[in-house]
Structure formats: C-alpha cells, structure tokens
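lol ok so funny story. i was supposed to be doing the assay writeup but got distracted and ended up predicting the structure for this chain instead. priorities right. anyway since i did it might as well share w the group, maybe its usefull for someone
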Amino acid sequence: MYKNILVAVALDKDHDTQASFEAARLLANADAEFTVLHVQEPIPAYVASQIPEEVLANTRKELQESLHLNAAELSGAKPRLVSGSAGRAIVDFANENDIDCIVLASHKPGIENIFIGSTANRVVHHANCSVHVIR
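and the output, tada:
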C-alpha cells in the first residue's frame, strides 16, 4: 500500500476521474495523503501575446475552481495546478514531492501515439515510483 499518492486528472468533459479516485483509495494506506494534480499546458508566446491578461487570469481561476471541486470528491486530497507539458510535469511533481504512487487515466493508444507518445506513456517510462494506469 502507498502513503503519498498523486492522482493526475484532466479537467475536460471527456474524462471521468471517479475510476482514478477509486483506484487511489484502494491502493492507499489508512493514513495516506492524496494530491490531485492538473497540468495546464502552456500557450505559445505568439498566441498568448494576443490574449488579454484578464482572459488568461480568468481561465486559470476557472481551472483552479474546477480542480478544487474535483479534488473534493477524494476525501482529504490537496488540489494542485501546475503549468507545463503534462507528462514531464507529472513526473517532476512526483519526484519533487516524494510521491510513491501515481494514478492516472489513459485513452486507448492510436497511431498518433507511436510518433508523439501519450502522457501516460511518458509517465510510465520516466517515473521513479509506481504508476497505475486506468483505462
């Protein structure tokens, strides 16, 4: 069983986090700590320069609110919002915070994953801790 579990989530309508939360609960020690992490992909500078600052700030605020609501479904979980490339950011966060298990959902791989790789694939291959992938 694990004591410091990171549950990586995507905050879009196509992803249901309940299976990841249930897996995290089943893998946890009685006194385990949970972190629910969402990675906000960076907007290219040439695009960001055309978006008003208040729109960027409001978008981040909405993401944080959605993340807090989502994390509340996993009792005692700490919500964390970070920026970066999802696969790398998840692995870096896990390494920096002594995470001993990462739980994340994955889609079924297609031809595009052969060339560019998926977030789950990157995490599985680069994490220094256990990784549980939910399909």
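The beta strands are 2-8, 28-40, 78-83, 101-105, 130-134. The chain has a mean pLDDT of 91.
back to the writeup now i swear
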